[in-house]
């Protein structure tokens, strides 16, 4: 499978928005979840599209009051829209941005989630972008989604998924820091490893849990 991702982040005094689009291509086609991944998904063809858009409003920014406490730097009202092949979800909740090292970002959001496949449920989302070894140019970046108790809707078999966990983590090295990108703080050319993970009870019962490390190249403007 090949994966191409476009993502964008805008952060202002009053909040921000993060969004991405994943274009996934598989020359031999995709497979349905479960059953040892042996049943072709005829509806997907040779590609899949998945996107998330996550806007948030900073309570400190819009009220002028300080909402920081302990390790928390700010509190926000968060929303999220997810969509892909035959799938759509909407989420709303609160977010907590934590104090992080310089140029780092660490946030945890608690949402109420509704979508067309799973029953309504609570979801926790963590987002991180943190330096590991700043001088050498290493950092870790990614997100995770955790639904503590997920169940498919009746139209999808009312399957008890248990805890549903999805994560995509990148370990990146700033290989371009000694090239033309060196003098531009907003541009980076990085290489590294991207690890995609998806675990739940149904996937485990069908030997279809995902732990997929793959090389990646990232160009940031």
From TrEMBL:
Superkingdom per UniProt: Bacteria
Gene3D superfamilies linked to this entry: Nucleoside-specific channel-forming protein, Tsx-like
What cellular-component terms does GO give this entry? cell outer membrane
What InterPro entries does the entry give?
Answer: Channel_Tsx-like_sf
- What is the protein named? Uncharacterized protein
